[in-house]
Structures are given as C-alpha cells and as structure tokens.
Write a structure and sequence with these properties.
Elements: H1 12-36, H2 40-51, H3 56-63, H4 72-108, H5 126-140, E1 144-145, E2 151-153, H6 154-157, H7 169-172, E3 183-185, H8 191-200, E4 205-214, E5 226-236, H9 241-256, E6 262-269, E7 272-281, E8 298-307, H10 309-314, E9 323-329, H11 331-339, H12 352-355
Parallel strand pairs: 1-4
Antiparallel strand pairs: 2-3, 4-5, 5-9, 6-7, 7-8, 8-9
The structure holds 3,4-dihydroxyphenylalanine.
Length: 358
C-alpha cells in the first residue's frame, strides 16, 4: 500500500504510481476471476470482492481523496474506466453463464406433456388375413393344417394326381422348373394330398393345406406367377358327396354370410371324379346380375370333387374301401371378390396405399 500521510497528503508521483499499479493489478485479477467464475453464485462473490461497496475497487477509490488534487482527475478517470470495463465483463459473463445453463437444460429436459412420436405399426398382409380366416373356419370343423413343400417333384405335382405327361391339362398348369431334372415349383397345393395320404394311411384324414403356388403365366390383372391356394382333403370309409357339399356350404356361409346361397356346377379335374365348381351368390348384386358376376348372379370360388380312385390308390388307400373329397380355392381371388379388387398384381406390389386398407 502507498505510504499515507495526513488526509490529502499522498505525495507526488509516488502515490499516483502506486494507485495506478494497484488499479492495473485489480483490473487483471478481477478480469481473471470473472472469466473463471463457473456459476451465478461464484460470479456474485467476485462482484462483491472487487466491485462491491466494501470491495477492492471501492478501497482504491477511497484512497483517491488522499491524492494531490491535481492528479485526481487522471487517476479518477482511470479508476472509472476499470470499473466500467469490469462491470461490462461481469454482465457479459452472467449472460454467457445463463445461455449455457439454458441450452444444457434444453438438452437434458424431457417434456412429458409433449405427445410421443408415432411408432408406425405394421399389420398382416391381406393374403395372410384371409388365409388365417379360412384356416380358422376349417379348424372349427375339425380340419388340421398340413404343410407340404413349395418345391415339388414333377411326379407329385402331376403324375400321381392323374395328370400324365401327355395330358392337355399340363399346359394350364405350366410352371417354373429347377435345373434339377423333375424338380419344379408346385402349380397347386394338390400334391400335398398325396403327401398327406402317404403319411396318414390307414387312418382317416381331414386336413387343409394352405400355401404358395407358382405358374408360368403372363402377369396380368387376372393372373400372377405366384398366389396362394388352400387345398382341402377328407378321406375315410364312408365319405360322400353329401359331406363335401355340407362342408363347403358351411364354409361359404361363414365366409360370405349365412344368407348367401351356394351352388355346385359339374366340372372336370383329372384328380377328382365327379368334379364340381362351387359358386356363391354374387356378394355385390346378390344374384340380380352385375359387372362383377358378369351378369350371371354367381361368383365361382373353388373347385372340388370326390378324390379320383387312382389318386386314392397313389396315396396308399384302397379305393374299394375308402373314399374322399377334395377341394381347392384361391384366397387372393376370394379377397378380390370380397373387396372388389380389380387387379391381382396389387398383392405383391407392396404398395402401402393398397396394403393399409386391410
Ligand atoms: N388344383 C386345382 C387348381 O389348381 C384346384 C382344385 C380343384 C383342387 C379341385 C382340388 C379339387 O382338390 O378337388 O386349379
């Protein structure tokens, strides 16, 4: 501290230099303390220590009165500059601390009142939905689900189903062949009939066989190279056409509504004898005739018949002792009829605008 004489008697150059040095030291020290103040409380301590009423700067200012009056203005101005600079630095530091605290709070804070981000929910493909519905209806009637492979032998897919190589029906069921001789992608679920029979003999059978089928086709609104089928097979000692009709009419009632009429038309399939196709009353015009049913009032939904004796035999069952019925339907076709979908290609295009409607 500068030597002090009686009041007003700081002498000359010496006192002035001491005060200037003290101011410069205070300026540097306080600036450093402000810079390193880590929070509002630390900042307040620094403020009190250097700029407070009983602080270091006030002490220096008080000493000015001891200075030679001629020197006071210059030193006073210098002290004022220091004071202003420190006050500005204090404000700047306070704002910086506040901004940092705010941004930390923003990133750490979870606003529980904000609605959550929606999690997109998937759903079952329309084909899967209809497959499950079909399986459920037949399960209620005591049918079990039998799985058989998509990759089949030519023998299972054709010969054993009474479709010999020269048969014209082979054209209708043309498919994709693998590089291995006699191995192909099945054109229908019917070969599963042979597999189910060979596995179940000599027990009675009541199964459905859902699965993907493949055909070598031009892809159009009406035909795809892959689609599902659900095959049905019942074999036993006294299975009759009446059982076939009862089962399928029950199915149609549960699928399309109890008031919906069904009819059987004679048809032909190499693996059934006799063969039929089942129609249900048009779900759109209810029999009056419209574009969907091509003015007939009826929609064809499946093929069926009594299992051909040759096929029973190929499955290991004696056709003199056993009989059976079989049917095959296309779930995509049924979905198309139910929802008036006009193009089968939608099923595998994976367009959400289509899929989200189901
Ligand atoms: N497999 C036939 C097809 O793909 C559908 C079929 C018709 C299956 C009659 C059957 C049946 O079991 O009895 O076109």
């Amino acid at each position: 501290m500068a030597p002090r004489g009686p009041r007003g008697a700081f002498f000359g150059e010496r006192g002035m230099r001491d005060i200037s040095e003290a101011l410069a030291a205070l300026d540097a020290e306080a600036t450093a303390a402000l810079e390193s103040a880590a929070d509002e409380a630390a900042l307040e301590q620094v403020r009190v220590r250097y700029l407070g009423r009983k602080g270091a700067l006030a002490a220096i200012l008080r000493a000015l009165v001891d200075l030679d009056p001629a020197q006071r203005p210059a030193i006073g101005k210098c002290a004022n500059d220091v004071k202003q600079r420190l006050e500005a630095a204090l404000t700047a530091r306070r704002e910086a601390l506040l901004a940092a605290a705010r941004s930390a709070a923003e990133s750490a804070h979870v606003d529980v009142t904000l609605p959550g981000r929606p999690i997109p929910m998937g759903r079952l493909h329309p084909s899967t939905q209809i497959l499950r519905r079909i399986c459920q209806i037949f399960a209620d009637m005591g049918f079990q689900i039998y799985r058989s492979p998509d990759v089949e032998t030519e023998e299972m897919n054709f010969e054993l189903l009474n479709i010999p190589a020269y048969h014209p029906a082979r054209d209708m069921w043309d498919t994709f062949y693998t590089t291995e001789e006699g191995i192909l992608l099945r054109t229908h679920t019917s070969p599963g009939q042979i597999r189910a029979m060979r596995e179940s003999w000599p027990h009675p059978i009541r199964v459905i066989l859902p699965g993907m089928c493949y055909r070598y086709e031009q892809i159009t609104a009406r035909s795809e190279i892959q689609f599902h089928q659900v095959e049905g097979l019942a074999v036993g000692r006294h299975v009759t056409m009446t059982d076939l009709k009862g089962t399928l009419v029950s199915f149609a009632h549960r699928m399309f509504g109890a008031e919906r009429r069904a009819r059987f038309r004679a048809s032909h399939f190499p693996f059934t004898e006799p063969s039929a196709e089942m129609d249900v009353e048009c779900i759109l015009c209810e029999g009056a005739g419209c574009a969907l049913c091509k003015q007939t009032g009826w929609l064809e939904i499946l093929g069926c018949g009594m299992v051909h004796p040759t096929v029973l035999q190929n499955g290991g069952y004696d056709p003199m002792a056993y009989s059976g019925f079989a049917f095959g339907m296309g779930p995509e076709r049924i979905t198309m009829l139910k929802h008036r979908i006009e193009d089968i290609r939608y099923f595998w295009t994976n367009d959400l605008r289509f899929l989200e409607q189901f």
